[in-house]
Amino acid sequence: MVAAADVIVVGAGASGLSAAIEAAGAGAEVLVLEKNPVAGGSSRLSVGSINAAGSVLQQRAGIVDTPDEHFEDMDHFMGPFAAQENRALRRLLVDNAADTLHWLMSLGLCFYGPTADPPHRHPRMHNVLPNSRAYPYYLSREARRCGAKLAFDAPVTALLTDAEGGVRGVAATLGGRPVEIEARRGVVLCAGDYSNGAALKSRFRPELAGVPGVNPTATGDGHRLAEAVGAHIVNGEVVYGPGLRFGAPAVPSLLQRLPPSWALGKLMQLALATLPAALFRPFVMSFMTASLGPEAALLRGGAVLVNRDGERFVDESQAPGLAIAAQPGGQAWLVLDDALARRFSAAPHAVSTAPGVAFAYLPDYRRHRKDLYRQAGSPAELARRMGLPAGALERSLQGRGWQAPLHALGPLEARIVITDGGLAVDASHRVLRMDGGAIPRLWAAGAAGQGGVLLAGNGHHLCWAVTSGRRAGHFAAAAAAGA
Hints:
By secondary structure, this protein is of the alpha+beta class. It contains 17 helices and 22 strands. Helix 1 packs parallel to helix 5 (134-145) and helix 15 crosses helix 16. It is globular.
């Protein structure tokens, strides 16, 4: 049984594994404790993109881009929370983004791009190949190569403190037994966000407390552990969602099942760069239709939402996420007539969009998600094929003058995508108390250590996870034992 380590990392997602690699590479004895049975956290559920300015892939494409321009472009995403962002940490992110990407590439990850992602002024999105499982695969492999020990099914229940309030270790469960493990140099919290943490959502955004997160195990464990020893959370009210998602297919798509090998990534990278896109479109669509939800434009265009009782329950011109979450089973179905179906069968009207990757149209769902798509000549027949009450659906569609055949997609669910509230940290990722003082021997990275930086837009959360994880691991390893 492990009784002590130089550095203990809580969480084996992208930030935790990056912290472990840097700390172990610096000579520290590292133990990673992960509550789940596998590594990856939210990174393995993501699209896997990273936005970076000045990358070698941009240079090869002749794109001139700078961190300064990236920093400015992030202003477009801040919205009502702009005044409360930690811009110093944003600066840290954009200045290190290209190095983060290059470091990941050095470990074996392959990326396609850069691709455009407006309102970014330059193409700077880099998409991982063949899928996001490459992150835990390569990062875990490198962490073990560097000598870090990884323990799974090992939840941390508390931080242990000394008489001065510094962190001296953790209480955890290993092998089904409660243990206390000393951290000679310190603890790095990399336990993810609280998108599925009802207690923290109740505190900061009570109206969202009942809406589940995309990642069911993202419960804000690091936030809770740190608050118990005097830390505080900033920007807790910044929550992305509820977003609309189609239920996952019973069988993962081919792209999701592919092994995250370097050779396959390189082959896909070459093919995407040289062969006609039409050859790969069905392949990409199998991923998109398994991972995304509908664009708001479909609802604005005239599609209606019905619940499992066949009844309309919301004004579709408004954001329907909260209303869907309140329906029986938390589910809804999209219903549209043939005129609208034809409009959303080709550009520029996409049902779903993966920025920098592709667009999915109704025929793509018909082809790749037969479990979601239904078509019929009348409301009664459509209801029968959807498994909904016929009379209620007929009443919901009455008087609309729709063209047959009718189409339906569903079930559809509301999900919290991610949260931006994180523990207050300084530029060295040390966790801070309310008075601004650092808690000795405690660092945080990724969503747990977001520190007030706002990461709206594609490719920023994952970039922050790896960037901050590497830095936190470096600083933790450099700390003097017991200091």
